[in-house]
Amino acid sequence: MKRIELSHGAGGKEMGLLIRKHILSRFSKGNAEVALHALDDSAVVNDVVFTTDSHTVQPIFFPGGDIGRLAVAGTVNDIASLGAKPVAMSLAIVLEEGFEMDLFEKIMESIAETAEEAGVEIVTGDTKVVERGSMKDIIVTTSAIGIATPLLEENHKMVKRCKWLLDSSLQVGDKIILTGTIADHGIAIISKREGYGFEGEVESDVAPLYGLMEKALQEGGIASAKDATRGGIANALNEMAEKSGVGIIIEEEKIPIREATLAACEMLGLDPLAVGNEGKMIIGVVEEKAEEVLEAIRKHKYGKEAEIIGEVVEGKHVILKTKVGGKRIVETPTGELIPRIC
Questions:
Q1: Among candidates 209, 274, 236, 239, which has minimal Cα distance to 75?
Q2: Could you count the other beta carbons within 10 Å of the beta carbon of residue 313?
Q3: Domain check: are 17 and 120 in the same one?
């Protein structure tokens, strides 16, 4: 008898197969402007952008953040990746009997602070308490809605593709911008969870990114954007390439990564391209606007280390140009890399 495995939630091939075979097959395509079958970061219904997410990260407090900050940032980033402005959010909490009240208050305070930073209002929610031993600590489920802005409308006039910044909107010649260092969140989680003593301090990058996206949209020329979470930039780039029917070439020497994070990945035998992030966006930009968008992003506090890491080409693979001059195909991650990063 087949059973659900942790790899089915890791953001790679197994998760994709689970969603397509067992979830999408049960639902019709419907009439949404951006529907479920698009498998984008958010849906669009009657010009309203909508997303939902559940958060079960372990540990619930980690270097650089906690489950509360993660819940808000992860949800608003899914809205922002379509180019929309997040405006309202729901908050549903399931608590295990015996959960410490002091920890609960810290998480609530973190949620409030991050929502304020993100400019999103929490307007509805639900709270449940379940019997001790029936789950682990706390689960936070959030939904959010967003709206198009004049900046997005002006960007659409310039790019003349879909108004929303969809995975499927890349075209040959576009440049690929990564908004900062990779793999910090996944390594921070596994470091805290397993008690590893890595040289140097690795903190999660968890952060709300609409302000950064607003900087990019002010310059215009944005074709596509994706929040690079589970499965890292390897999974995100492969999804964008497959849906757009293009290839992508990225340069290893251009990909920003902290020394401590890289050292940890090497020690653990992990490909940093496949390790999850919670505060990084991959942005496809028309070639003539790429440098201007990059400079605008670098002026934002969460984009100071942004780089143009590659370009969109003819083909169907994501190719990495290595530092030593070789090339390799960047595959969609498989198996269980780091479970419960979000």
A1: 209
A2: 15
A3: yes
What is the Cα–Cα distance from 44 to 23, expressed in whole angstroms? 19
Half-sphere exposure of 342 (CA within 13 A, CB side): 31
> Distance of alpha carbon 45 from its chain centroid, rounded?
21
Q: Which residues pair with 251 in a beta bridge?
A: 321
Q: Are 247 and 312 in contact (CB under 8 A)?
A: yes
pLDDT at 295 over 90: yes
Within a domain: 266: yes
Q: Is residue 337 part of a domain?
A: no
Query: For 108, how many CA atoms within 13 A lie in the half-sphere containing its CB?
Result: 12
Tens-place pLDDT, residues 59-70: 999 999 999 999
Give the E-state strand segments of 118-213 in sequence order.
121-130, 138-147, 175-178
Q: To which H or E segment does residue 112 belong?
A: helix 101-118
Same domain? For 99 and 161 the reply is: no
Do you find a cis peptide bond into 333, omega within 30 degrees of 0? Answer: no
Please indicate, yes or no, if residue 338 is contained in any of the structural domains: no
Report d(CA 181, CA 304) in Å as an integer.
10
**What confidence tens digit (pLDDT) does each residue in 174-216 have?**
999 999 999 999 999 998 888 776 656 899 999 999 999 999 9
Shared domain check, 320 and 194: yes
